[in-house]
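Handout, section 4.2: multi-component inputs.
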Amino acid sequence: MAVGAERWSRPNGDFHTAPRRAAAAVTVRRSGEELHRLRVLWLLAAAALLASTVWTRMAYWQISQHGRLSAIAEAQYSKYVDLPSTRGMIYDSSGRPLAVDTTVYDVFVSPSQIPAGQREALAEQLAAALNVPRDPLLGVLSSGKQFAYVAKRVSKTIADRLTALQLPSVGLQPEQQRSYLPGAVPGTSLASNLLGFVNYDGQGQYGVEGYYDQALAGKAGYETTYRDLAGNEIVLGSRTQKLPVNGSSLTLTLDSDIQFAAEQAIAGGVQAAHAESGSVLIMDPHTGGIIAWADYPGYDANQFQSTDVGRFQDPMVSYLYEPGSVMKVVTLAGALEDHAITPTTTINDPGYIGVGGYTLHDWDLASHGTVTMTRVLDDSLNVGAVRAMQMEGSSAFYRNLEAFGFGKPSGVDVLGENRQAAGLAPLDQWSTVQVATTSFGQGIAVNMVQMLSAVNVIANGGRWAQPHVVAAVGDKASAAASVPARQVVTTQTAQLMTSMMEDVVQHGSGWKARVPGFQNDEAGKTGTSQIPQNGGYSDQVWASYVGFLPATNPQFTMLVVVRKPNNGSSDHNEGYYVSGPIWKEIAQAIVVERRLSPEAH
Amino acid sequence: MPAIALRIDRSLRLYIAGAAVLLVVLVYLIQAAQVTAASYRIEQLQSSQQSLVAEQSQLQYEEASLQAPARVQAEASRTGMQRAAPAAYLPSRSVAVNLLAPIDGVTSTDQPFWSRLVAAIWR
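Output:
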């Protein structure tokens, strides 16, 4: 046995071997710590690797994808909401509403969310609440669609009923709807042609609604709000908001009661005369404010979606007509103003006159002998009107036409005035016979507003007043109402012409329009004009009557036009016969309404 | 002993700091909850306001409809009322009356004022 081996094999007690063994133990311990440290390091490294992976991923989402994710999150909990402005109301001259915005509701369902077993019961309940047949509703509920409307524009009463039922998958969407008052004729709304309507997009169409759409509509706003998972708005969260500016209300010059009376009278008159249509326009002589604007047939602006589009065109401003003998008021007033005639100037009227190679006749084709200009107006003699124009001269006559407002559109504040056709061609383009026929209202096309404004010059002491419908936008006077009146003829001329028009009522063709008690204080003029057709004239006519009352202190000027009356005989289609009584009926209503009394003569 | 006291003191500070943080968090949470609750309440009130505005506009229209001439006439007809006959006026004629002329043909210069006054009383 080797010594060394013995030393090594002897445990304990040998002082030579103990330090070596201790050193060996330290070495082992050190290698264990080393291992332990290595393991820790490995773990740390692994943890760091994992952490860095997570951090890298987090950095990817938080930094690199921040913008995109924020946008997605924003879209989930924030909502952009339009804040509609409230449309202004429309009032009549007494402050009574004519057009009001009401809230109606669209009813929708989510058919895909309705279990098959519940569809029948839901259809029953919906049908009962909406007062509609059940089967079509069941069809919608069984369609499996995500979204479907079951009713549109139902009233708040029905909406409240549905809300109380708490039907599953049924929702209500509020909408604004313009509502108009009922008119004088069943199935129409009051002053429908004048007011126009507001379509489902909230845009004013036709009439006053169209003309003043911007002022009435105001400006819509918006807001961005935050909502929770259930869709409830978190009002106190951060939000961006632009408040809407509500529209201005309009105050019209219209009088509802007189408008109603005018609608009734024109409807009755048109029906009685078997005519195609008719219109009444009433104006305040001093301001030019329109008191009534009635058409027959009208339409129901509350049901515009089911109305023939042709009905929306307003005959007063959109259509032109030949005014006929009503124009003699303008012709004779111009001649009086230019001192070419006086009311007592006499002419010889053989019943016809040759002009430019044509022969023009009086309406009755009869000879009248020597007649005064007053008689010319009384009996509506065409020859007399042509002679008055000739005495005045065509240039002066043309200038008078322009001064009376025929050279340009009337400028009335209602959408749809036929602006191109409402002007006059230069005089050098007129033939001699055209100038002559224009003196008695044929061969010239005007609209009713222009014609009434021209006659109103006589009622207003010789001043032309701007015709307008809107007196105020909000609390400010409308632009049209602020236009100053302009002097067209002198007060003396207007007074002379008034006397001649009074004579028409007392001794001439206006006898059917005499208002009891006002016979000596009423001014008027009849008119009948043939309707052009295929380059000539047809047998059909426009029958009209214009006048003002009381003649000495006019409170209203009124023009009645009936289109294509069909009373059997041509005499019974004349303006005096067809339109005179309508004028009288409305005038009587105004006398009662405004408590008018005649002046003593 | 000082070491133990120091350790207790340090723990206490830690607890107090923890409690303070907790308190701040609690206050924040309570406030946030109240804000959310108030927010829901405001939304309910807004919804209620919208409903009332809708009802108001409905009533406005109903009021206007009740005053509408068509409605007035229908109601009048239903209750048997009839349209009033147009007012009848009699044409007047000028009468030559001198309102300044003295009564009984006595001119004002015939008698003194006091005499006319006495005469008016005793007449």
